[in-house]
Every structure is written in C-alpha cells, then in structure tokens.
Amino acid sequence: MIEFRHVTKLYGAVIGVNDINLELPPGAYGLLGPNGSGKTTLLNLITGQLNPSLGAVRVMGRRPGHAASLRRLGFCPGYEGMYANVSGFEWVTYLLELHGFSRSDARRRAEQSLERVGMTDAMMRPIGGYSRGMRQRTKFAQATAHDPDLLILDEPFNGLDPIGRHDIGEMLRGWIRQGKSLIISSHILHEVEAITGSFLLIYGGRLLASGSAQEVHSLLTDVPREITIATSSPRELAQILIAEQLVEGIRWESPDCITAATRHPLNIFRRLPELIAEHSIRVTSLRSSDDSLQSMFNTLLRLRRGDRFSRAARSQPVEEAAHE
Amino acid sequence: MNDAATPTDPKQSELLRTARAVVACLRFESRRSLSIPRLATWCLLALFPVGIVTVFRYFGEMPRPEVWALMLFLLIPESMCLLGLLLWMAPHLQSELDGKTWPYLAVRPHGRLIVFLGKYLNAVVWTALAGLASLSICIYIAAPLMVDAGVMFQTLAALVVLSSMGYGALYALFGVLIPKRATLIAVGYTLTGELLIGTLPAVVSEITFQFHFRCLLRNWVDFTIGADETRLLFSEAPSWQHLAIIAGMIVGFLALGIWLIQVREYSIQDEA
Predict the structure, then answer these.
(1) Do A79 and B21 touch (CB under 8 A)?
(2) Rounded to whole angstroms, how far apart are CA atoms A317 and A322?
C-alpha cells in the first residue's frame, strides 16, 4: 500500500525525516512519536503535499499526489482549518464536489457522512459555532465521505474531551472492522494502542521500530525493564539491590522514589519482600510499566538517543548516583 | 479501485470531472463572497468611476469625445479592474495557500489545479461584473456627450473583460510564486510595470497589458489623435495581433501558475 525507499526530507538545513525505509501492506497503523519527531512530515509525504528531498515514496503503486491514488485516500489534518462562515454540510459537499462527485451525489454523500458521525442536527450551522468535538467529527466526515480505501488522520484526539475521544475511537474501530486501511498519528499512546496493534515509532525523523506490539517487544528482550519503587529508605534499598546483583542500574525519581533497571524483573519481585523485611525498609508502592506501549516507546527513544541509562548507572557508586 | 470510491459515471472523462469541480469551486467561492463587507467593497469599487464621471459631466468642462473614451478606459479597465483584482485575486489565493484549509483541498484529485482555476475565475467574474456595472452607469451618464455611445460601451466592455482576465492571470501567478508577498508584489508591479513602463513612449511598454489594451481602444473607437502622439503611444498593428498577444500572455501566466502550484510545497503547518 505504501512504500518509502530511503526517503529523506530536508527543510533547508533541518531534517524532517531521515532515510526512512518502509513498506506497509494494507492495514491499520499507529504512527507514534513526540512533537517534532517527523510524524506530520511523514504523513504529508504520503499525501503528496511534500516531495522527498531524497528517495522515493509510492502510494498504492503510484507517486503520492497522483489523482488516482488521491481518489482512494481520505485525509484528516491535525488542525481545524475549516471556513468558519460555511456550514459543515456545505463544507463536506464542496470537498466531495472537488473530489469529482456531481452536486446531487455530493449532497447525498455529505448528508450520509455527517449523519454517521452524529452531526445531523448541527450540519446546517456555520462551522464557526461548532465545539471542538463537532469540528473533529466534521473533519472525520469530510475524510470518509468519499469512502476511501486508506484513511490518514493526524493527531485526531488533540483537544478532545474524554467523550469525544471515545467517540472518535469508536469510529476508527468501526472503520478498521470494515477492512479499510488506516494510519493514525498521535502521541497519546494508550489511545492508539486501543485502536490498533500495529505501529510505527518515529523520533528525530527516524523510524525507531515498526510492526506489531509483539514484534517490537521482541526487539526489547535484551533491554533492561524498569521498576519504580517508592520507599522511606531509597539509598539503603538501592545499595541492597546492587549488592544482591538484582539490578543493573538505579535512577532517583524523587527523594523517596527510585527506578531500578533489570533484565530479570521476576528476580526482584521474588526477593524484594524478604529483603525489605530483613532490613526493615518500608516500601509504599512498587510499579512496573514494562507491558505498556509507553514503556516500550520510552525505552526505544532512549536507545535511539544513545542513552545507556542502565550501564552508566551501574558503573557509578550508589552515593554518586544518589546525587544525580 | 472499488466502485464506491469512483465518483460519478466511470464513462465521464477526467477532464469533464475536473471542469465540473472548477465550476463547483467557483460556485463555493462566490457563495462565500456574498458577505456584507465584500458586497460593500464591490459597490464602492463600481461607484468610484461613476462619481468621477458625474463630476466631469455636470460640474466640469465638456471633454472632447475621445477624451471621454480615454478617461473611461483609464478609470474602469485600467484602475477599477486592477483594484478589484488586487483585492480579490492574489490575497485570496495567498490566504488559501498560507492558511490551514489548503491540505483539505490539495488532497483531492487535481485539487491544486481546481482551486487555482476556481479562485481565478471567481476573481475575474466579480471584477468584470463590477466593471460592467460601473461602465453601464458611466455610459448612461455621459452618453449625450459621446459620438457613438454604443460602440464605446462595446469596446470598453470587451476591455473590462480582457483586463479582468489578463491582470487576474498575472496576479494569480504572483499568488503562487511568492504567496507571502503576493499582494505587495502585485501592487509593485502595477505601479512600476503597468502605470510607469506601460505609459512610456518606448518599445518596452509593449510587454505590458496596458499597451495592448490601449491599442485595441484606439483601433475600435474612432480616435482623432495627432500623428506624433499616435506614433509614441500606439502601434499600427491590427487588433487581432494585440488580441493574440493578450491571449498568449493570459494562457502563459495561467500555465506557469498551474505548473507552480502543482510542483511547489505549500504545507507550512507546525510539525505535530
């Protein structure tokens, strides 16, 4: 469906995306990365609004921006940018007419599409009077009204309240159930995770990882997992964990909270109760977030940045580490 | 491609679908233009030549018939139309390209071409209609002092349409060439190119629209102007030649504008 061959996009001296090699078959993908990581650049390369400085992009076998591929693509930008003085119905009808539909077809489809997103009552009102959620629904309606094969959404959850997020999430899950393709960019990981299990991690214009959650987890088998422990005696506990060779590094989160990095988290879970009993250390909470996408994302980002957290910390005496 | 994604009858040619989309863009833009500020501007624009002609007609000396022709030519196709297009062509295209609506439009099949032509036609129609309304009232006021008001109206009406199309194409090109400075460039060109170079009694003036419009005016209205003045400001070329050059310039500017809008990147939103 989408192919990137050594694609680099430069904005003058600034790199938007850097040597991206990627082949995506039809399906649903979450594009994850922090602000400025290159997500929007990547999406704009797919929609043909940007041209690669190096390399080549193919969308459905054609160059991006080709009329035939645009006909099968729906795009929902990350910002609103709709005319305030026209109604949602007029706006969607107009975009359908630009898409090539006759006026009567466009009006019929616009009405159906706005109805699907629950905008029937408000669709004749000017967009300027819409709430954020209503504008988001209108954007979704314009992107799907022509029944595209591939839907691209840039940060669709931005600024939405919980109900709006839930509704958009439901719409997207419905879209996937129809067998349609989807690329959704976001930095809200749990919401993307709730929609699709396949994702692309991008940071600093580079693709860090791609594939299913399991595939990315497999990349992390040799990566230390993190366990955050809140305790009344963090320094003493850190010394014990290092002396017992249960951890590979310790990081101070706050005066009464440490994060331990380990390749064998189960060993800590087994030994910790007896150790804290033996040394009369009070532990108020213990948390491992290793199964979440957030943890995976953070770890990959640190690896990408070359942040050797665990090894660096391991080589330091606990006293020195404590002052970091 | 599945059936649902195929808009309209598959037998319809791509060209027909694109043409229909251009008409849709023109209709949408015209509908958006029906606002009180825009209509007030339109009225002001159409009425300012009328005010000047009224003053000349009732309060000034009676100009010679050929001076009426020149005055109306300078007031309507050469001033009012330029002002209208300065207001409605380059800034509107610029605001679309700079604004956040562009990605919605550019991801439609041939969307860039459609929006460029739709906005061009919208500016031309609004300007030409203001020009024709203004011309009709001016001719009505000055008709008793003209030798042949009918010919004068036809000539100037044709020049209003040509002026709207010509300057519209040029300003549309400025709009896609340098979107952030389009209006400034258009004003700069109008002052130096059309008003200064265009009125120079030299060959260089032939590169301006004004020169060819002026020559058409002289060819179509029976002027009584001295030989020296004619030699310096007009050419002896037949009307078809001027029309061909004007048409060539319009097509050339539009083609260049279309090419630019297709190949350039206008996505300038903040990185998410």
Answers:
(1) no
(2) 9
- In sequence order, what E strands does chain A have? 2-11, 14-24, 28-32, 54-59, 73-76, 150-154, 181-186, 198-203, 206-212, 225-231, 249-254, 257-262, 283-288
3-state SS string over B117-138?
HHHHHHHHHHHHHHHHHHHHHH
Rounded distance, CA A49 to CA B262, Å? 10
- Class of residue B24 by CB neighbours under 10 A (exposed 0-12, middle 13-18, buried 19+): buried
pLDDT in tens, chain B (272 residues): 344 445 555 556 888 888 999 999 999 999 888 888 889 999 999 999 999 988 888 877 766 777 788 889 999 999 999 999 998 888 888 778 777 788 899 999 999 999 999 999 999 999 999 999 999 999 998 887 777 888 889 999 999 999 999 999 999 999 888 888 888 888 898 888 888 887 777 777 788 898 999 889 888 887 666 556 566 677 778 889 999 999 999 999 999 999 999 988 886 554 43
Identify whether residues A135 and A261 lie together within a single domain. Answer: no
- Residue in chain B nearest A202 by alpha carbon: B272
Whether B109 contacts chain A with CB within 8 A: yes
The answer on A273 and A252 residing in a single domain is: yes
Write down which residue in A217, A233, A268 finishes a domain: A217
Between B8, B99, B107, which is nearest A47 by CB?
Answer: B107
Tell whether A58 and A204 lie within a shared domain: yes
Answer whether B8 sits within 8 Å of A100, measured CB to CB.
yes
Assign residue A212 the CATH number of its domain.
Answer: 3.40.50.300
Half-sphere exposure of A276 (CA within 13 A, CB side): 20
Count CB pairs under 8 A between chains A and B.
130
Amino acid found at B187: V
Contact in structure between A50 and A6 (CB atoms under 8 Å)? no
CA A227 to chain centre: 23
Are β-strands A54-59 and A206-212 bridged in parallel, bridged antiparallel, or unpaired?
unpaired
CA dist B207 → A226, B246, B248 (Å): 73, 10, 12
Q: How far apart are CA B233 and CA B150, in angstroms?
A: 25
N residues, chain A: 324
Of A217, A234, A253, at which residue does a domain stop? A217
Amino acid at A244: E
Torsion sign across C-alpha atoms B15, B18, B22, B24? positive
Beta pairing partners, A222: none
Please give the residue range of the domain that contains residue A84: 2-217
* Whether A242 and A154 share a structural domain: no
Q: Are B127 and B84 in contact (CB under 8 A)?
A: yes
Give the integer Cα–Cα distance in Å for B86 and B177.
Answer: 15
Task: Specify whether A209 is located in the same domain as A230.
Answer: no
For chain B, give the number of residues: 272
Residue B112, phi then psi, degrees to nearest 5 = -65, -45
> E strand or H helix at A268, and its extent?
helix A265-278
Domain count of chain A?
2
Cα A77 from Cα B103, distance rounded (Å): 7
B272 interface with A at CB cutoff 8 Å: yes
